[in-house]
Amino acid sequence: MKKQFLAVASVISVGVFVTSLAFAAGNTSTTTQSGFANTATTVQTGNNNDAVVDQSDNGNNSEIDQNGDDNMADVTQAGDGIVPGNESLVGQDGANHDATVNQDGFNNTSTVSQLGDGNIADVIQMDGYSNSDVNQDGSGNMAYVTQQGDTVLPGNNSYVDQFGVDNTATVDQNGFNNDSSVNQDGELHEANVTQEDAESISDIDQMGVGNIATVHQSGELFDTIPPSNQSFIVQDGESNQANVTQNGAENLSDVNQDGLANFAYVNQEDKANFADVDQDGEVNDANVTQSGDPDELSIPSNMAFVDQSGPAVLNIANITQVGQLNHATVDQNGKELNFGEIEQWGQSNTAFIDQNSDENDAFVIQGNDLADCNSCDGTVEQNDDGGHIGSIHQEGDGHLAVTTQNGGGNSSFVAQSGSNNVSLITQN
To answer: pLDDT digits over 127-181, tens only?
Structure first.
């Protein structure tokens, strides 16, 4: 019969409490504490588990529970001389997990839960009031969280849930009151979140295989209406990629992709821009660039919508907006090989591209980097058998252009400058 060894050590000295329980053979637990009112509890069941706790200053709490074989947990916490210290909870069930927690500051909380085999979690939290929650169930998942909070204001929150195989999440938050959530279910997903300054929200949900999401948010330190920026990404399918960059305040981006190898890129500068990208199909490409009004508050500077679903295949949509109160929509729903481009320079412009057939090219260009277009309206609709080319170029004020092309293989070109010109074209 296999022998079982039980080792129990309990020490209470100068406000320091240490408990260590080890069941079975070959487990190692090392605890080093200095200061006052620190608490360390380690429970190990299995073989060849290793737990290391190093706590200094005051009021820190560490709990490690290892059940299985060959797991590693390393917790380092340096508290504050006056206020309560940090709290770390590590639970490992399975084999070959690795959890590293390093907290330097006060009132930081880290929770790591690992189930399965061979998951890695690395958490670093500095300053105060930050919270990190890592939940891994599967094998080969990796989570890296770095948070630098504030000594007075609320810190940052990071939530990482990984279910499946070989998923990677990297979260880097530097500022205060930023919120990041990463949920990955499947295989080979990658999520990267960088949040700077204050009060940004990022939410990434990925299902399927091999999707990549990258979010970079630089908020507004003293914006009057939080949150600074919001990014929501949902990807379900295979090899989809979303890249969102927000620099300013009150920007909102919503990306939803379902299918194979779709790509979405959103870049928002200044204040109060809104972008909505919806792609369902294969190898679709959406690019949205928005530069709003740095002084605009609450009212949307620019609004952009891309709908390439249905499912759609090999469509490209590009939207560029510079100014304020511009509205742009590209709808290429359920079709193939369409190209739609909208550029808006100025304010209060409206552009709409609707391509309901295959192999069309559409352009609505309102203004440029040398001359604005204000209160202009451009619409291109292309239907039936496809193969159309529709182009509208507007400079000046108050223009209206509507182009509708039916049948197949029609071409239309409109150029308007000055003010208040009207162009209406229908081709059948």
So the answer is: 989 999 999 999 999 999 999 977 666 889 999 999 999 999 999 999 889 999 9
DSSP states of 29-79 as a string?
A: EEEEE-SBS-EEEEEEEEES-EEEEEEESBS-EEEEEEEEES-EEEEEEE-
- What would the two tokens of residue 368 be? 């440029």
Name the pairing type of β-strands 212-218 and 190-198. Answer: parallel
Question: Cis link prior to 311 (omega < 30° from 0)?
Answer: yes
Question: CA 120 to CA 11: how far, in whole Å?
Answer: 31
Q: Residues 36-39: contacts with CB within 8 Å, 24+ apart?
A: 38/79, 38/85
Nearest residue to 158 (alpha-carbon basis) of 193, 206, 190, 113 = 193
Taking the complete model, does pTM exceed 0.90, yes or no? Answer: yes
Nearest to 6 by CA among 68, 31, 20, 67: 20
Contact present, 85 and 59 (Cβ < 8 Å): yes
Taking CB atoms within 8 Å and a gap of at least 24, the contacts of 7-16 are: none
**What are 223's two structure tokens?**
């914006």
Strand duo 109-117 + 273-282: pairing: unpaired
Q: How far apart are CA 371 and CA 4, in angstroms?
A: 82
- 151: its two tokens: 């000594």
Q: What is the DSSP letter of 159?
A: E
Distances (CA, A) of 59 to 32, 40, 51, 105, 188: 14, 11, 20, 11, 39
Number of Cβ within a 10 Å radius of residue 56:
16
Token pair listed for 78: 């340096």
Cβ neighbors of 12 (< 8 A, separation 6 or more) are none
Picking from 234, 269, 267, 235, the residue whose alpha carbon sits closest to that of residue 249 is 269
369-399 per-position pLDDT tens digit? 899 999 999 999 999 999 999 999 999 999 9
The full set of domain ranges for the chain reads 1-177
Q: Where are the beta strands (DSSP E) in 272-376?
A: 273-282, 285-291, 302-313, 316-324, 326-331, 339-347, 350-355, 361-366, 373-374
What are the structure tokens assigned to 234, written together? 């949902």
355 contacts 332 by C-beta, under 8 angstroms = yes
Q: In Å, what is the CA distance from 94 to each residue of 71, 162, 184?
A: 8, 15, 20
Q: Give which of 423, 357, 414 is closest to 388, Cα–Cα.
A: 357
